[in-house]
From TrEMBL:
GO MF terms, alphabetically ordered: hydrolase activity
Domain of life: Bacteria
Keyword Transmembrane attached: no
Gene3D superfamilies for this protein: Hotdog Thioesterase
Signal sequence region: none
Pfam families, A to Z: 4HBT_2 (PF13279)
Keywords: Hydrolase
Family classification: Belongs to the 4-hydroxybenzoyl-CoA thioesterase family.
SUPFAM superfamilies on file: Thioesterase/thiol ester dehydrase-isomerase
Protein's recorded name: Acyl-CoA thioester hydrolase
Native organism: Chryseobacterium taihuense
Keyword Transcription appears in the UniProt entry: no
Length: 140
């Protein structure tokens, strides 16, 4: 398996409703930011949730981690760097790094998603459409 990294960088601005009474982004919103990163990654690299659904699959998250290092505040812009982690297993693994306007690491994390078919059966092997995508991206 090749070690080619596929990444996507998305810029986001903190909205007022994402902050807590302390004036910083509430910790639960970082998982939403990870979702923003996955959506942007899918659009950039041709692996959107709509593509996955069209192929007859869903990809629920089975694990997520998030480590916080610095706060984000209302009005700040930040970058979400999303990296696809290639795996032989039938899963989608993404790593995330969020950087503030000073390019300092705010938080990092990871999500793992599995493939379920239309009958909600866990896929033990890469679905054909996903393997085709990996081949196209040079990840096989």
């Amino acid at each position: 398996m090749q070690s080619k990294d596929l990444t996507c960088t998305e810029e986001v601005r903190v909205r007022f409703n994402e902050t807590d009474p302390l004036g910083i982004v509430w910790h639960g919103h970082y998982i939403v930011y990870f979702e923003d990163g996955r959506e942007a990654f899918g659009r950039q690299h041709g692996l959107t949730y709509l593509d996955i659904q069209k192929a007859g699959f869903v990809t629920p998250i089975v694990k997520s981690t998030c480590e916080h290092f610095l706060p984000l505040r209302y009005g700040e812009t930040f970058k979400i760097v999303t990296t696809f982690v290639n795996s032989a297993s039938a899963k989608l693994i993404y790593k995330y790094e969020l950087f503030n306007e000073d390019n300092k690491l705010v938080c990092s994390g990871e999500t793992i998603q599995v493939f379920l078919d239309s009958d909600n059966n866990l896929c033990l092997y890469n679905p054909e459409f996903f393997q085709d995508w990996k081949d196209k991206m040079g990840l096989s």
